[in-house]
Amino acid sequence: MSGLSVEEAKEWGELGQNVGRLLETIPKPTIAAVNGFALGGGCELALACDLRYAASTAKLGQPEVNLGIIPGWGGTQRLARVCGVGVAKDLILTGRVLDAQEALRIHLVNAVFEPVDLMEKTIETARLLAAKGPLALAAAKAATNRALQGDHVENLISEGEHFGDLFASGDAKEGMTAFVEKRAPRFSGR
User: Fold this and answer.
1) Cα–Cα 20 to 30 A to 70, which of 9, 58, 61, 81?
2) Pairwise CA distance, residues 103 & 57, whole Å
């Protein structure tokens, strides 16, 4: 990065922000599995994911201030929303690096596993999510993403609209029928 011009740095920041927005807004849930270092851009990409799992040996942080810059891929915004403004300021202003247990304590990651178990546990969660109705997952993700944005009452109204709209889907009919019949649902995404 040391050779980037101002314009190139802005383009690099825009690229990272676009990737983060894609992770954050695609209808399918995204899961980050951190097995090693997630510093700077790596932490920012993990923050854009819906769930974050870490190996017990992982290190996470936003150390850009140590380089004379700030996070440029959404770290100032997403870290504050995930962990709170006070924690975000602590990590961003000091540039300190966290171990996995501290990351778990401050809710930067959802769970910590031994390195040998990390991918198995991540895939287990991915399979669990894949068995859910894709329309419901997309609506839940969109509604939850709005939780800390905009007007609270408008967000509640929007949630109610999504809730009601899903009743027109085949997935809702299948899910409720499967529940009554005490069987696993077979969602089609329609």
Assistant:
1) 58
2) 11
- Does 1 score more than 90 pLDDT? no
Instruction: Output phi, psi for 114, to 5 deg.
Output: -65, 145
Burial of 45 (0-12, 13-18, 19+ CB in 10 A): buried
State what percent of residues in the chain have pLDDT above 90. 92
Of 8, 64, 154, 181, the catalytic one is 64
Single-letter residue type at 172 = A
The span from the CA of 92 to the CA of 43, in Å, is 12
Rg (C-alpha) for the chain, rounded Å, is: 19
Q: Active site residue: 14, 44, 114, 120, which one?
A: 44
> What pTM, to 2 d.p., does this model score?
0.91
Whether the pLDDT of residue 148 is over 90: the answer is no
Report the C-alpha gap between 90 and 93 in whole angstroms: 6
Q: How far is Cα 12 from Cα 116, in angstroms, rounded to an integer?
A: 34
Query: Is 64 an active-site residue?
Result: yes
Phi, psi of 130 (to 5 degrees): -65, -25
Secondary structure (3-state) at 185: coil
The CB-based long-range contact list for 14-17 (8 Å cut-off, 24+ gap) reads: 16/41, 16/44, 16/45, 16/72, 16/73, 16/74, 17/72, 17/73, 17/74
